[in-house]
């Protein structure tokens, strides 16, 4: 499926709405609630089986997604502000909590569960500045440069990524 060209058109998530999706271990969508399907602009048929990255906006730094994937693959719950790309090229911001799903018998990770809510606009403004800096680092020195900048910022603040996100 061809990725849409991003547009400067924002879709706002209503404060009382929750977006939910589930994926398998490889990040392929296995479930999306009605609101997630609606705001993404894709049909349920287009989303099921597609990689969750189908809604990844190019303004999202790779370092943030690497940190997210590293965390959930090690069994941690991760929180993040995420700018998503809808099928028509518009975008929408969410505050996401991503949690691994475990097999009840083996205890192994079998997939991931994501709950997303409307973000605080003031916090989105702050995180947008961070993401721009990380993207600039990626353009100049690749993923490694972006990761280093993120780690340096977190070390300077003396916090984990989740603590940083909660402190915004």
Describe the protein in words.
- This protein is of the alpha+beta class and 168 residues long.
- The chain has a domain of 101 residues: Beta-Lactamase (2-Layer Sandwich), CATH 3.30.450.20.
- It is built from five helices and five strands; from the N terminus they run E-E-H-H-H-E-E-E-H-H.
- It has a five-stranded antiparallel sheet with strand order 2-1-5-4-3.
- Strand 4 and strand 5 form a beta hairpin.
- Helix 3 packs across helix 4.
- The longest helix is centred in the C-terminal third of the chain and has 37 residues.
- The model has no long low-confidence stretch (mean pLDDT 95).
Keywords:
Beta-Lactamase, 5 helices, alpha+beta, 5-stranded antiparallel sheet, 5 strands, 168 residues
Beta-strand percentage? 15-25%
Mean pLDDT: 95
- What order do the helices and strands follow? EEHHHEEEHH
Strand runs, count: 5
CATH architecture label name of one domain? 2-Layer Sandwich
In CATH terms, the superfamily of one domain is PAS domain
State the helicity in percent bands. Answer: 25-40%
CATH topology of one domain: the name is: Beta-Lactamase
Oligomer description:
single chain
Number of helices: 5
Low-confidence stretches: none
How many strands, what sense, and barrel or not for the largest sheet?
A: 5 strands, antiparallel
Task: Find the structural class using helix and strand composition.
Answer: alpha+beta
Spatial arrangement of strands, main beta sheet: 2-1-5-4-3
Rg of Cα set: 16 Å
CATH class of one domain: Alpha Beta
**Mass-distribution shape:** globular
The N- and C-terminal alpha carbons lie at a distance of 36 Å
